[in-house]
Amino acid sequence: MGQVGTKDRFELVGTPPDHQEAEFADAVREGLSASPRHVPARFLYDARGSELFEQICTLPEYYPTRAEREILEDRADEIAAAIDREPTLVEFGSGSAEKTRHVIEALIARHGHLRYAPIDISRAALEASADGLLADHPELEMVGVWGEYARGLLTLERVTDSPLLVLWLGSSIGNLTHTEALAFLRDVRERLAPQDRLLIGVDLVKDPAVLEAAYDDAQGVTAAFTLNLIARIARELGGDLRPEDFCYRSRWNPDEERIESHLEVVRAHTAHIPGAKLEVAFEVGDRIHTEYAHKYTPKSFAALAADAGFAVERNWTDGEARFRSCLLAPR
């Protein structure tokens, strides 16, 4: 926190680094010992991964950020008006909070004050966004929650009787399987009161060529982002894994309506990862699954929300009908 006059309006709470390191080691050991091999997508977002993802969001092929920003710019006042009283604004996976600014400013304009609680696995991202937001908005106070979404929900306590407006932007729900998304939404639903609302960014099913380009850009930034997982394992857990022994692959699966991303082995080798107490033999063509990006139709998302105990109260769509922001109300 470098800005003068903002420290008294920012509090950081969350998971100690040693606990996060143990979680990473466990996930690598379990995932690389499984069949098929996998590492959860949340571990793509260390400091370097978060930087690369911010670059991805500026790429011409990566439309979701622009489409969602358009909605939030144009509809922030309507979103702010969805809750009558001043809410506490909570955000899962806040990152730079660049898009969130539109909602923050609309809520401050409507109520004169705002408490904002971003939840992110990157401490650097939380502190950087707090520096900028608090310097620009003296009416704002922040509690940054450093950790995963579920732990963030447990960490946050309802300190007033004000309603919550929870944001889950960027179509992050797409990284979860249907089973995982349903379980997470049900968990969120259990923690919300009737007056609370959940705003979710949902990427819509569209031309496969558009989708595949968005997740495999010409500049190779998405490839670097995913290969950084291998570099992170080497940095944090030691051993001899090397990014140059892998290449990035992604494809659209029309049956599951999702992009599937993975790392493919290009050189046979045996990797030693002492921090995970693991030795892994890789053959050419072996794969490590890294990420899903599920896409939804309006009908399929409404059904998921209903199964989780929510009703879709409002929808906003960008001008090209690529992306939808859905306001969910507990039922």
TrEMBL record:
Enzyme class (EC, first level): transferase
Domain of life: Bacteria
EC number(s) reported in the record: 2.1.1.44
Single GO MF descriptor: L-histidine N(alpha)-methyltransferase activity
Histidine-specific methyltransferase SAM-dependent domain sequence ranges: 25-328
Pfam families named in the record: Methyltransf_33
Keyword set, alphabetical order: Methyltransferase, Transferase
SUPFAM superfamilies named in the record: S-adenosyl-L-methionine-dependent methyltransferases
GO biological process, one term: methylation
InterPro entries: EgtD, EgtD_Methyltrsf_superfamily, MeTrfase_dom, MeTrfase_EgtD-like, SAM-dependent_MTases_sf
Signal sequence coordinates: none
Residues in coiled coil: none
Record-given protein name: Histidine-specific methyltransferase EgtD
Organism field: Rohdeia mirabilis
Lineage of the species this protein comes from: Bacteria, Pseudomonadati, Planctomycetota, Planctomycetia, Planctomycetia incertae sedis
